[in-house]
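Suppose a colleague, Dr. K., hands you the sequence of a protein chain of 84 amino acids and asks what its three-dimensional shape might be. Before reaching for any lab equipment, you can write down a predicted structure in C-alpha cell form. Begin with the sequence itself:
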Amino acid sequence: MAGSIELYLGTDTLSLPDGSLRPVQWRSYSTACQQHQGEVTEKRTIQQAYASKLASAQRDPSIIDTQDWAGVRAILDTVIHAFE
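The predicted structure, expressed as C-alpha cells, is then:
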C-alpha cells in the first residue's frame, strides 16, 4: 500500500493543536486494489509545519532529538539500502 509523503513527516507535523492527528479523507475506490483511496487533510499546512521544523533543526541541531524524524529516516534508509 502507498501513503503520501506527508504521512512520514512526523507526528509533530501531523498533529492538531489538541494533540490528535489530522484525519484522512477517503476519496475514491480503486477496483484494481479493491480498497478505498484516501489522503491526509490540510496537506499544505503539514508541508509548512515540516518546513518550519526543518528550518528550526538547521538553526539549532541540538533540538533534533526532540523532533519526530522516524518516518523521514525510514524513507532514507529504504532508498539508501534499496539495491543491497
